Amino acid sequence: MKKIRVKVLKYVSLVCLAVNLSACQQELSSADVVLDIEASEKELTSYHVLLKQNEYNYEREKGANPDLETVANGQIILQEGGSGSRVDKVNGVAKDKTEVVANATTGMIRYHQNEWQPTLTPKSALGNIVTIPYEKTVLFVKELANLEGVKWESDVSYDMVSYVGDSADVVKSVYHLLGLQVVANSYLDMGISINKDTHFVEFLEIHMVQNDGVQHEKNIEVRYNGFNRQRLKELPKR
Questions:
Q1: Which of 22, 65, 169, 218 could form a disulfide with 208 if both were Cys (CB 3.0 to 4.6 A apart)?
Q2: What is the full DSSP assignment across the chain?
Q3: Would you say 153 and 160 are in contact if contact means Cβ atoms under 8 Å apart?
Q4: Which residues on neighbouring strands pair with residue 191, listed in sequence order?
């Protein structure tokens, strides 16, 4: 199977060309990484997240557009609320657009720019947009620290976690992160990059091929930024 390398790791490799190569791709202690991201998470008050996800079904010939595609932007202010938007496409055509705004007590949602409606809880509103919140990615990294076959490396700018293969334990952790039921015969190529200065996770990218009789390809890219710089939006008027 042809491996599709993680873009983040490609970027880091290019950075390495500009510095002393001996300082690049050094082995890293997973325990140290976990301690660092746990410490930085305690200082986290807000963040922005961009999620891109697409899926191909090889039951038919692969087309120019994914069968399913999602792009979501979210601003999360911990303990206070947040806001965001999400667009879902089918075969390249936008089918659903969702917007949410929430504070500590109330969540609001609207579809296709229709009227705003209240949600059951603020958390349920934001859950429509931010399907992989930052704290879930931190837990994922901590799980990977206990699994075999996962590579932990460091360069001048990033601590990097990567895995290529089909280990049942790693596959299970990925499906848990995505909130999906485990599919047998899944192959992974994934990478995570953690800023060495701030110790915040900045990039998560997963390429997954499933074969349960029909081959499926999933690509997930998550970028976290704007740490501790997000502001709460006012709730829209109904």
A1: 218
A2: ------HHHHHHHHHHHTS-GGGSSEE--HHHHHHHHHHHHHT--EEEEEEEEEEEETTS---SS-SEEEEEEEEEETTTEEEEEEEEEETTEEEEEEEEEE-SS-EEEEETT---EE-S-HHHHHHTT-SS-HHHHHHHHHHHTTSTT-EEEE-SSEEEEEEEE--HHHHHHHHHHHT----SSEEEEEEEEEETTT--EEEEEEEEEEESSSEEEEEEEEEEE-TT---PPPPPP-
A3: yes
A4: 162, 205
pLDDT for 62 equals 57
Q: Could you list the residue range(s) of the whole structural domain that residue 215 is in? A: 7-225
Number of domains in the chain: 1
In a domain, 82, yes or no: yes
Q: Is position 237 within any domain?
A: no
In a domain, 96, yes or no: yes
Asked if residues 4 and 164 have their Cβ atoms less than 8 Å apart, the reply is no
Mean pLDDT across the chain, nearest whole number? 89
Q: What is the CATH number of the domain that holds 197?
A: 2.50.20
**Which residue in 207, 231, 202 sits closest to 219, CA to CA?**
207
What sign for the dihedral angle of Cα 177, 107, 97, 203?
negative
What's phi and psi for 192, nearest 5 deg?
-130, 135
Judged on CB neighbours under 10 Å (0-12, 13-18, 19+), 25 is: middle
- For residue 59, the model assigns a pLDDT of 67
* Domain membership flag for residue 129: yes
Report the distance separating Cα 30 and Cα 42, nearest Å. Answer: 19
